[in-house]
């Protein structure tokens, strides 16, 4: 079963069970998926495209949590945290920091002698190898510390 179908089924079940928060979130996710279908001019999205949209929505929630926390609006930050947790339920498991570090070291050794000024080149190669399996911020941090050793 595709990820989009799973989201649709969960939406229907949440409506039947009167889970207002889940219904609201899934409605937003369905709208984001619909917008992506329109922008790509497709009738259906592949699982990879659905995951891309879900990651984009998760990043929005993560940024909102930071802003609400800075603005001392813990009630709104808690709401966004709950939504982020639900979105992560649909996303595949990300690699751990140790696994990302191992991939970064492999890429750097395959590129040969690399200076810290070539961060962009290394970062591009690592991100291409991971293909969305890890958060870009974590990858950036690990690549920087690996290059500065």
UniProtKB/TrEMBL annotation:
Alphabetized GO MF terms: carbon-nitrogen ligase activity, with glutamine as amido-N-donor; transferase activity
Entry-linked Pfam families: YqeY
Coiled-coil residue windows: 16-43
Domain of life: Bacteria
Keywords from the named record: Coiled coil, Transferase
Stated name of the protein: Aspartyl-tRNA amidotransferase
